[in-house]
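Practice problem: ABC-type antimicrobial peptide transport system, permease component
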Amino acid sequence: MNDFSLIFGNLFRKKLRTILLIISILTAFLIFGVLGAFYKAWNAGTDMAAADRLITVNKINFTVSMPIAYLNKVRSIKGVKRATSASWFGGYYREPRNFVQSFAVDAQSYLEVYPELVFPDGQKQAFLNTRNCLAVGVDTALQYGWEVGQNIPLKSSIWQQGDGSDAWDFTICAIFDGDKEAIGANYAIFHYAYFNESLAFAKDMIGWMVLNSENASQNDAVSERVDALFANSMYETETSSESAFNKAFLAQLGNISLILTMVIGAAFVTILVIVGTTMVMAVTERTREIAVMKTLGFQTGRIFRMVLSEAMLLSFLGGLLGLGLSFVLVKVLAGLMASFMPGMALSGQIAGFAIGLMVLLGLATGVLPAIKAMHVKMIDALGKN
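Answer key — structure tokens:
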């Protein structure tokens, strides 16, 4: 009988206890995998932000508009390569519960500033040439079963037309995707001019501007020039990098990173206490057997390695099962949440970190029991009743 057979046999000496421990560890790593994938998707906007892209919003709040005339003024600023505008539409399809993330944009320049949007042959030009075109992200199209050529009314929870209607009629003439999995295709865009011409209020106003600087190293200087141009006006601005803007936006929704860290930390501390205590108890139960092993010539170092390996095996059994289940669950959730949280996936980085945690958990729960086993005295142990 080799050492692995002894380790495996000792681990499953009390099957129910071991199975419950495996389930506990499995649960912790299942939580870790799912929350890790959620956190990755949550921060995708920050991670995928272009280095040379800047966002200009109203200094009061990003929900406050600014004049569309600002767009041409910004284009003339030194260091600005190109600029576009967008406005939040607050759209929904038929009923308010059918939310559609949608924006009125300066179409030509928007596609230049966001080259990562990929269109099938001919559809990009169709979007640019069709005044009432709605270009829909593939995730949104799949969610509502929309196809190219379909006519749909899109209602707004914010805006109204001059005749009192809150619905704009669109023809879907393009369905786009992102050039990377993590880039969302969960929204729709349409021509600002078509939207603006029939507005009942706030005409010739835009939500924000997006700029490309000539070089990312010029971002700070360009931001200062933009904000200086509109200083002391009715609509002062605040310009920041796309990454900084996305981080600030997410921060307003709460410190998700801290919340996830606390949840995962609490789960692992609990598992550490449970498994560590149980391993010490298991070694105590086997004190006489360990003494017998020593009389048979097992060296203290070998006994130390066997007990530590037992803890490591337990950690990896539960951890790998939990990680595998989290992979399956994340796949399911990614399909269900694609419309508002694209790019949800169990990355190699998350899996690698999880394996590192398995090693740490095995060491943390196995070292003390292994030391205890190593120092068992044969005379005292064999002398016990």
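Discussion: The mean pLDDT is 85. Students who identified this feature from the tokens alone can consider the problem solved.
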